User: What shape does this take?
Amino acid sequence: MFTGIIEEVGEIFGIRPVTGGYKLTIEASKVAEDAVLGASIAINGVCLTITSIEGARLEFDAIKETVDRTNLGKLKPGDKVNLERALKLGDRLDGHFVQGHVDGKGVITRKVDSASECVFWLKPDEAILPCIIPKGSVAIDGISLTIAAISGNEFSVAIIPTTLSMTSLADRKVGDLINIETDIVARTIIHRLQDMSRDRGLSIDTLRQNGYL
Assistant: This one.
């Protein structure tokens, strides 16, 4: 479990295909300080396990399903990635609960800069749209953000200068793919209601019977 508060921006040192996926090597500093084999690190919002440690270089395995569902397969040496260590019991939760299980990808369609913020507009995979809720939480490349607005099949997030300078979003441009994880609470409720609708249809009675009223 993570919070969506990025600890540092790491750099891809190497990435190579292997049977079933990729081997990913990342240059880090802060997240490598107490790294141990088997620990979880969120890389652009994707929870991966450390399989090898060599100083500040951490190696991870990314299976084919992970690569297909995220932007990790597009990475190349020198690319910047957002890094966060797993949440510890007792830590402050400054963002929101992020599982590191990416729901899908989105493409940046617009980027509007101003003195006070940078607004990104994204078009997510269609399956994600029902879980995109106005003013709800969303993790974009692992960053905990609030959905600012929704228009058709796109949504926007507003990035303050501090967040922009401390994450890889500063280098993002129109056309780039972004990893998206929707809010676990919204996702759970929507999936449950969809199941109820398919099974019995939604009504005041079924909502009351299942504890929603």
Summary: The radius of gyration is 18 Å. The longest strand covers residues 8-18.
